[in-house]
Amino acid sequence: MFKLVRRSSTLSVAAASMHKLFKTIENEVEDPLQGSVKGTIPLWVNGSLYRNGPGMYEVGEHKFNHWFDGMAMLQRFHISKGNVTYQRKFLRSDTFVKNTTSNRITRNEFATTADPDPCKNIFQRFLSVFETDELTDNTLVNVFPLKDGLYTATELVYLNKIDPETLDRVDKVDLEKKVGVNLATAHPHWDTDGNMYNIGHSFNRGLFTVLVKVPPKKDGVEGFPAGEIVFKTRSPWKLHFNYYHSFSMTENYYVFVQQPLLSNVPKILLGRKMGYAFDSSLTSYPEIKNRFRIVDRKTGEEVNADHVIEADSFLFFHQINAYEEQGHIILDIACHTDFKLLDRFYMKNLTSAQYEENLRSLSEPEARRYVIPLELGQESKDGNIVSLEHTAAKCHRISGKAFHCEPERLADIGMEFPQINYRKHNTKKYRYIYGVGLRHKQNPINTLVKIDTFTKTHREWKEDGCYPSEPVFVPEPGSDSEDGGVLVAAINRLGESDNENSCFLLVLDAKSFTEMARVEFKGVGRFPLDFHGVYTSDKN
Q1: Among residues 157, 131, 162, which one has the least CA distance to residue 146?
Q2: How far is residue 289 from each of residues 131, 225, 255, 273, measured CA to CA in Å?
Q3: Cys-Cys with 425: which of 123, 379, 430, 484 at CB 3.0–4.6 Å?
Q4: For 43, how many CA atoms within 13 A lie in the half-sphere containing its CB?
């Protein structure tokens, strides 16, 4: 049996389709719910798909302003012997507990400020703005495994450790105390040795971008291990720093991209005192070019530090992968040319019945390849110093030590939420990208896509009325093929009314990109429209 824990919701019933996905999930599924399988799931798939993202968009009468603000909800699909069970639960962060106990928003989120404490008088509220705010620990963006367990993350300094079976929070980690960073991305990397790597910012005696490394937890040692800063560089701006959501690594280098989305530090400081959220500090500057930075993983020194390697302006959330080939860094990124990108995800826009129509006017994100030679002294007849024959990407010397990169587009379809065969091909040469396909001028966000980076072709899965999550790759044990495995994605199917909504877990053959099975779950309504997920094998 499964347990439904009901909540009340203040959001109105949607009149159109897609914006229904941005509504509070009204029930938790605490006990594993058995799904109904149509098709066949390979018996070698034994493990759990975990997903993380916003599931609650208001507290009492107080609504969150942005998709990035909602209270985190965790999902678990446990696959064993061809069967699947489903659970979901709101992350019991300190913020969630305080919000639901107080029946109001008590801590600032990305674009939402805390509501005043009704127990304080006007004078007490005035004085409270000069107190140090508590940072939210609502880690709603990503979920990833480390040696000692499962963790959730956002873009502040907190991680929450999660019980992989009950989805309960079992520990909270402060990266400022463990590593010395004040901000860290939601997309750390991890390797087969159990090390975690991330990029972030440190405000100790200046504005610094830092790369950090955290070793695996030692057996018999309590607590999250202390890490170290392996690279540090000052912000190129006196009062701003570049926004990062992800970065890349190759076998020998860290690769990060400074994008023209800047955060104003005085606005952050003023906002914490005067009640402004973090989004008010962010501004896009399309006139500023993107700059590529490469750091040697062994020495911690920047490669070609006295050179400037740039590209025409773009914004991005997700770097896809990077690797080395014949003296070049190949860097693949999901790129956006909409410089008001973050504005599109305010709840007032997402919950509008015209949301799908609004999406059709946007530019589609492109899967792009940039190629950066490690040796910048070489020349060619046409000025392009990229010597690889299999790519159309170029890098030209503009003057002296200034270089300009021109990308190659990897597919003729928009794509976001990219995934790869991470365990075998992160930092290494690879061929396939899986993601959510976006055709804004047709039906937005209702396609899964597989991109072949060698042939620049793609395959799609889509079904009328269905909206997929990011697809997660599950490798077949013993397979030597990069796409030997399956893809699992959470699919919402929207009906004319909320009572007609349904959901299922889709299992695709990663090689042929054809459906192998779908697993339907009765009584849950729909899945939350979340951000990211990870699969862990029962053998791990």
Answers
A1: 162
A2: 38, 37, 17, 32
A3: 430
A4: 1
**Cβ atoms 44, 477 nearer than 8 A:** yes
Q: What are phi and psi of 96, to 5 degrees?
A: -60, -45
Q: Cβ atoms within 10 A of the Cβ of 129, count?
A: 12
Report the distance separating Cα 211 and Cα 162, nearest Å. Answer: 25
C-alpha span between 28 and 71 (Å, rounded): 13
How many separate domains does the chain show? 1
Query: How far apart, in whole angstroms, are the C-alpha atoms of residue 168 and residue 540?
Result: 20
pTM, rounded to two decimals? 0.93
Rounded Cα distance, 245 and 114, in Å: 24
- Per-residue pLDDT reduced to its tens digit, 230-288: 999 999 999 999 999 999 999 999 999 999 999 998 888 777 667 789 999 999 999 99
Structure tokens at 132: 């140090």
- 3 state DSSP class of 209: strand
Question: Any residues with CB less than 8 A from the CB of 81 and at least 6 apart, and which?
Answer: 43, 46
Query: Which amino acid appears at position 336 of this protein?
Result: H
Up-side HSE of residue 264: CA atoms within 13 Å toward CB? 13
Cβ-contact 363, 308 below 8 angstroms: no
Residue 65 structure tokens: 């302003």
Bridge partners, 405 (sequence order): 311, 395
Q: What phi and psi, each to the nearest 5 degrees, are found at residue 102?
A: -85, -15
What type of residue sits at position 456? K
Enter the tokens of residue 30.
Answer: 């605490």
For residue 143, list its beta bridge partners: 152
Side-chain half-sphere exposure of 446, counting CA atoms within 13 A: 19
Task: Give the tokens for residue 274.
Answer: 């005067």
Backbone dihedral region for residue 205 (phi beyond 0: left; psi -120 to 50: alpha; all else: beta): left
Instruction: Tell me if 45 sits within 8 A of 474, measured CB to CB.
Output: yes
Burial of 133 (C-beta count, 10 Å sphere; 0-12/13-18/19+): middle
3-state DSSP assignment of residue 19: helix
- Structural domain containing residue 411: 4-537
Amino acid identity of residue 349, one-letter, is N
Q: Is 449 helix (H, G, I), strand (E, B) or coil?
A: strand
Question: Which tens digit of pLDDT belongs to each residue from 176-216?
Answer: 999 999 999 999 999 988 999 999 999 988 899 999 999 99
